[in-house]
Amino acid sequence: MSRLTYYGHACFSIELADGTKLLFDPFITPNELAKEIDVDAIEADYVLLTHGHADHVADAESILKRTGATLISNFEIVSWFGGKGIENAHPMNHGGGFDFPFGRVTYVNAVHSSSLPDGSYGGNPGGFVVETNDGSFYVSGDTALHFDQKILGERFQLDFGVLCIGDNFTMGPADAALAAEWAGLKKAVGVHYDTFPPIKIDHEAAKGEFAQRGVELLLPGIGETVDV
User: Which of 57, 180, 183, 209 ranks highest by number of CB atoms within 10 Å?
Assistant: First the structure.
C-alpha cells in the first residue's frame, strides 16, 4: 500500500513503502486554494510531469533544484528544463517504459494540448502507468475520455488511478468514471477540479457517477494524506 498526499489541482505525491517519494505536476504557489501548503517543505525523489501547461509545472523548477530529484517527462519537456539547468532528468515518449530503482514507468496517451509557460512546444501530453512492489497505478494527466484507457485495463493490473474530473478542459465525472471502469479500477482519486470557476464540480454527484460503475472515488482535501 502507498500513501498519497494531495496538494491541490492536479498535484499530488505518492510515498512508496521503501520511502521513495514521487511528486506529480507541482502547481502550488499560484494556487489560491493551496495557500496553506509550504512548497519548500515538500520532498521528492522524482518529479513526474504529464505535460507542459503552467498549472502542472509552475513549481517544478524550484522543487527540482532544491531537492535534486530526477525529472521524468517527455523529451520536449525534459529538454526545456535542461535549458534551465535541470540535468538530472530522464526523457520518455508515448508507449515507452523504463525500469527505475522504485519500479517501472510507462508514458501513456492523453488527449489534450501542451505548451510550456513561455509558449515553447511541449510535445504531446501524456499520462503515466507506474508499477512498483507496492502495486500499480494509472495517472491520467489532463485528458479526454479515450479508448486507450480500455487497453490499460487489458495490459496492466492496476490497483488505483488518479484521474482528472473537472470537466470543461478535461474529462468530467461521468467520462472519468467510464475511464476508470475501462481501466479496471476499483478506486480512483479525483484531481483537476474546483481550482477555477469553469471546473468547479458537485462532489457528491461525482462520487455517484463513479459508484454507478463500481468504483470508489476519493476526493482528499488539500494537504490530506490517504492510503491507496
Answer: 180
